[in-house]
Amino acid sequence: MKNVLTVILVSTLALSGCAPKAEKFTLKEGTPAYTLAKDLAAIVPALGPDKSTVLVETKSFVVTAAEVIQAARENLGTRSDQLKTVDAGQMKKIIDQAATSLAERKLLLAAAAAAKTVVPAEELDKALQSEYAQAGGEQAFLEALKGAGVSVDHVKKSVEETLLINKFLSGIAETKGKISDEELRRAYDQESTGDKTATVRHILILTQGKTDPEKAAAKTKIEGILAEAKAGADFAELAKKYSEDPGAKENGGLYENFSRGQMVKPFEDAAFSVPVGQLSGVVETTFGYHILQIVGRQKETRTFEEARAEIESRLKQTKQGTAVEDYIKGLKDKAKFKLIGL
């Protein structure tokens, strides 16, 4: 289901206009989306095609479960039937995350339109050509869409909207992501007198999207793993056995030579403060609960001019990412965004 969730969240259809709050999206009887909603209602009744379940509220529009299911069917075609294989708990998480993504996309499209952002025809064509190439050519691409029951017009519209949002956000990032000479010098001084990079092994137990009792169980689990590590168990083997971080699980939880600003703050703080060779306690981040084993750290040995370009690139990437996150949060706050959920 991870693949289905990813596609839904990344590709979710957003209508260009925002309907008045009173106008709730509904499904038409006899359509594939209506049938899908009827089947999903056997797992979560609130998803029934005749329901008007509101998942997200804003000042200018609402997002209903029906709209999310319609988006799933339009984006995934027959692959959306995979949703019928999950349990109620997973279903609620998937639908709520997709509703949030859909609402954010609507807000961004409206903001981009207000800023008069446009996507030149040649940029859209280039993006579509890239899609064709990945599928083995335009004909193969079209046949794949037809086989999955996905409209090519919908795909083209979705690609264009995504390009529009990306272009708009790139402008936000560029404007707010400039790095001053003072910031460069401060970062260099910190890395040349302190530590530039850290190498750690870590174990993660995820808590994203979990209920309070599930989070409590995760905390108990990570504390038990920490006790094993303190008792002398091989940390890399513990990571392979327990960690829920797919990016590092198989290599014993290893993250090598990462700089400040690349990891979430609590993780970074532990990586750069716990003595080398020792274990952190339980560290909580937005992802879940972590334990870190500090393998090593390195200082910056280059001159300021030698290191300048790399430091500027890294700081800009971090600052731009934060600027975009802050902008989207501000957009949601202004719209009085509220996730009601299933």
Write the layout of secondary structure elements.
Blueprint: H1 2-11, H2 32-40, E1 54-57, E2 62-64, H3 65-76, H4 88-114, H5 121-135, H6 138-148, H7 152-176, H8 181-193, E3 197-206, H9 212-230, H10 235-242, E4 254-259, H11 265-271, E5 283-284, E6 288-298, H12 304-334, E7 338-339
Antiparallel strand pairs: 1-2, 1-7, 3-4, 3-6, 5-6
Helix pairs in contact: 1-3, 1-4, 2-3, 3-4, 4-7, 5-6, 5-7, 7-12, 8-12
Structural summary, described in words:
The two termini are 18 Å apart. 55% of the residues lie in helices and 11% in strands. It contains 12 helices and 7 strands. The protein has 342 residues and is of the alpha+beta class. A 4-stranded antiparallel beta sheet has the order 4-3-6-5. The protein has a 3-stranded antiparallel beta sheet with strand order 2-1-7.
Name the features:
12 helices; alpha+beta; 4-stranded antiparallel sheet; Chitinase A, domain 3; 342 residues; 2 domains
Number of domains: 2
How many helical stretches?
Answer: 12
Main sheet overview: 4 strands, antiparallel
Q: So what's the overall shape?
A: globular
How far the N terminus sits from the C terminus, by CA atoms, comes to 18 Å
Helix-strand makeup class: alpha+beta
Strand order of the largest sheet: 4-3-6-5
Number of strands: 7
Poorly predicted ranges (pLDDT <50, ≥5 residues)? 1-22
Helix content: 40-55%
> What percentage of the residues does DSSP assign to strands (E)?
5-15%
